[in-house]
Amino acid sequence: MAIQIPQTETTPAEAFDLSARFPGAVVADGRPGYSGWIVNKDSLIEVATFLRDEMSYDLLSSVTGVDYLPEEKMEVVYQAYKTTGGPGIFFKVQVPRVDPIEVPSVIHIWSGADLQEREIWDLYGIKFTGHPDLRRILTWEGFAGHPMRKDWQEGFYEEDTKPFKSRWPEGKFVSSEEKNPFSDNLKFPDKFDPERWTPTDPEEALYASLKKAVTKNEEGLETEQIIVNMGPQHPSTHGVFRAVVVLDGETVTSLKPVMGYLHRNHEKIGERNTFLQNMPYTDRLDYFNSMSNNWGYALAVEKLMGIEVAERAEYIRVIMAELSRIQNHLIWVGMMLNDLGTYFTPALYAFEERELILDVFEAASGSRMMCNYYRFGGVVRDVPAEAFEKIKGLVYDRLPGKIEEFERFLSENEVLLSRLVGVGYLSTEDAIATSTTGPVLRASGVPYDIRRADPYGIYDRFDFDVVTRPESDMYARYVVRIEEMRQSLRILEQAIKGIPEGPVLSAKPVYQVRVPAGEAYGRIESPKGELGFYVISNGKPNPWRYHVRAPSFINLTALELMCVGNKVADFVAILGAIDIVLGELDR
Amino acid sequence: MYGKGILKGLGVTWKRYWNTYIEDLAWFFRRLTGGQKRYYTPEGVARRTSPDTRGIFTIQYPEEKLPTPEEFRYIPFLVYDETETDEKAVRCTSCGICAKVCPPQCIWIVRTNDPKTGKPVPVPAEFYIDADICMNCGYCAEYCPFDAIKMDHDYEIASYDRNVLNMQDLLKSADYYASIRPENATREDEARRAKEAAKAAKAAAA
User: Fold this and answer.
1) How far does A309 lie from chain B, in Å, by closest CA?
2) Is B126 in contact with A363 (Cβ distance < 8 A)?
3) Is B181's Cβ below 8 Å from some Cβ in A?
4) Would you call the peptide bond into B62 cis, given omega within 30 degrees of 0 as the criterion?
5) Smallest Cα distance from B37 to chain A, Å
6) Are B94 and B123 in contact (CB under 8 A)?
7) How far apart are CA A504 and CA A70, in angstroms?
8) Which of A411, A506, B56, B154 has the fewest CB atoms lying closer than 10 Å?
9) DSSP string of B113-169?
10) Closest to A37 measured CA to CA, from A60, A53, A58, A20
11) Beta strands in A82-149 (DSSP E)
12) What is the DSSP letter of B51?
């Protein structure tokens, strides 16, 4: 079941000279603090094909835009990795900041770029030529402008960067609602009247992007396929998520996810914040796993700052992240079973263990879900002694038995098997091409776990197996998660045994950290997949760019592939098996 | 045999069902021997939040409440010391660090200026916290150099109105602080006293 893969190869990404292979088209990124390559716009497809086919960078982890307003440039940053492990490669395309800004789409090389390129078009206004369905994704169809551009200002705009000067020393309190009454804080495009707007027009593009056909049976009777909107208010969608499904009878023939109902422009807020202020905001992404989210962000900023993490804090980080993985997977099992119709019995069994883990988080960090526990260089405070005893009690005595109990409870249940086995198939090739990560990718037979493939923190010291299953169906996703909880317990046992005494913060706590200019990408194996933070600093107190590579969001690229051919009732389960959280999906 | 898996699973629910009664029986004997009760008692809540818990798991809120750990944080308050003349000595010096570090920027501070010289006086004239915006991150308490702003334990603050807290609402005594966070308060008091002693020693030497 579990495959032991060797430690990662040590060849650095820069071992080969891409600029020598493509003279004139590629140059090394020489800006201080930056790495990777700058690719000529016209050679992008050629270079990307070379990287995928000859250098085996088969997993396009993240695509994102950066607005260099002072230099009058827009940049698209690509991060590609090998599923066999090792460091990745950064390459960038720079275009002048004059509309229309156009960059060729890489969707035909890595289809995982689909939703991400749409996001860049939505937020930055960069057109991807060759993208088959370039519509807005996070903001709504009538939205004016592209909100992540540096010259775009929101309705409640006060200043470019925090701290706002009005707060001290003449803090005259004004409620923001008084300053910006509702309806004045919205902007519409020219000739757009919200009173007369009917939702038919923009929806047409969405419905047109679906494959719809008229089929005939043997007697020549025509069957028209129908469109069904699942959500945004639907109990199966784990929040305000909507999927437009085309049905032939009961069978799904085409599907498009529609999202952004919970969009709050997390990244724009992140660029207004100082580096430290972003930490509690990361809690609100995947609110089940604030401990892991903190880690990803801390990792990126620590890379930029070039600081070491205190030894004891490294162990505490591992303990907290693995506990949060266990409670995430437990709750996933519970909620998945809810989606299948076993109303709340497994979910409440899972909640019991989760509450006990949250008690530990609360004792250590002060909050059950919005932990805000990690700091640059360590964690905010040590775990209290009683909480540590509770962790030991959970890890050694309670959780192994409870995971066993879940297996007895569910794993052989014939009803469950008939719903999960062979349903929601995602082939290995498709899983890699669509940039899925985490349990979804591992259940498609790819032993890719960032804790092993590109170790961060102190994961290289622990002995654990990367769990994979070759079946690529929903049952495989279930088994992978159950088995991953056992591996997490293995890591926890080693971490509890090995934790040294000492300080938990390597630097003096300061409220204004100094971050040298440069770029950094911190990525961790969050319970849902690869969670990455791409942070650019220009030496000022606030990040110039703060991008979240959200696993819930990018894993949805594969949703249509998994659903087509299955029944509409299975869509609910397939979506559940991906494990999405809307706070992270919509950001 | 088809259905074996279902039966196995039902065995788990069956066991869980009986666990409640087994636990009841255990508490019955505990009550006979030591007078301990399962519900509405601290020992009952402690048992249900320990890793050994089984059977009924829920807390009967609001009759029972989960104990808040020392580090629990919810909405900041300002600490004052009581002087010998029964006045409130506010620890805050209106340095503005909490307002600057606050991620959602929900703290407004008006600094006092001496009416004669116009120079700032280390006491806040006004202090507002918009509790509707506060995200309970605890940064203000964490980075305050004077132990003047601390996070509260009172989470039952639901109301029909907006909660903009001013100085009167925010001020709470150092005794209250020591009652909700005994370990932190002792540690900070010791550190402050050591600092003052060092200062006094330095002044005496000079």
Assistant:
1) 19
2) no
3) no
4) yes
5) 22
6) yes
7) 39
8) B154
9) E-TTT--EEEEEEEEEEETTT-----HHHHH-TTS-EEEE-------SS--EE-HHH
10) A20
11) 89-96, 101-104, 126-129
12) T
B121 versus A192: the higher-pLDDT residue is B121
Per-residue model confidence as pLDDT tens digits over A264-301: 889 999 999 999 999 999 999 988 899 999 999 999 99
Token reading at B76: 């900041």
How many Å apart are CA A531 and CA A489, to the nearest integer? Answer: 21
Would you state the structure tokens that stand for residue A163, as one six-digit string?
């701290």
Point out which residues pair with B111 in neighbouring strands. Answer: B124
Which residues does residue A521 pair with via DSSP β-bridges, in sequence order?
A534
This complex has an ipTM of: 0.90
The owner of tokens 């709504």 is A140
Inter-chain CB proximity B6 and A384 less than 8 Å:
no
Sign (positive or negative) of CA dihedral B136, B141, B143, B148: positive
What is the CATH T-level fold of the domain A2-129, as seen in this structure?
A: Beta Polymerase; domain 2 (3.30.460)
First-to-last C-alpha distance (Å) of chain A: 35
DSSP label at A460? G
DSSP assignments along A340-389, one per residue: HT--SHHHHHHHHHHHHHHHHHHHHHS-SS----EETTEESSPPPHHHHH
Cβ–Cβ < 8 Å for A376, A301: yes
Could you report the per-residue pLDDT of B123-149, keeping only the tens digit for each?
A: 888 889 988 889 999 999 999 988 899
* pLDDT beyond 50 at A1: no
What CATH topology corresponds to B74-205? Answer: Alpha-Beta Plaits (3.30.70)
Q: Phi first, then psi: what are they for B62, rounded to 5°?
A: -90, 0
pLDDT band with cut points at 50, 70 and 90 for residue A13: very low
- What is the reported pTM? 0.88
Q: Give the CA dihedral A521, A525, A527, A530, nearest 10 degrees.
A: 50
Residue type, A125: G
Percent of the residues in chain A that have a pLDDT greater than 90, as a whole number: 35
Residue B62 tokens read as 């609001």
Give the 3-state secondary structure of residue A230: strand
Contact B171, B90 (CB under 8 A): yes
Which contacts of B35-42 are long-range, i.e. CB under 8 A and separated by 24 or more positions? Answer: B39/B64, B40/B64, B42/B67
Q: Considering CB atoms only, which of A175, A405, A414 is closest to B2?
A: A414
Delimiting residues of CATH 3.30.70.20 domain(s) in chain B: 74-205
> How many other CB atoms are found less than 10 A from the CB of residue A55?
15
Report residue A154 as tokens.
Answer: 């929101």
Residues of A in contact with B69 (CB under 8 A): 359, 362-363, 366, 384, 387
Q: Are A524 and A299 in contact (CB under 8 A)?
A: yes
Give chain B positions within 8 Å (CB) of A166: 108
Task: Give the separation between CA B144 and CA B184, rounded to whole angstroms.
Answer: 14
Per-residue model confidence (pLDDT) at position A5: 47
From A168, A176, A509, residue closest to B96, measured CB to CB = A168
Residue B157 is predicted with a pLDDT of 85
Spatial neighbors of A430 by CB under 8 A, at least 6 apart, are: A444, A558, A561
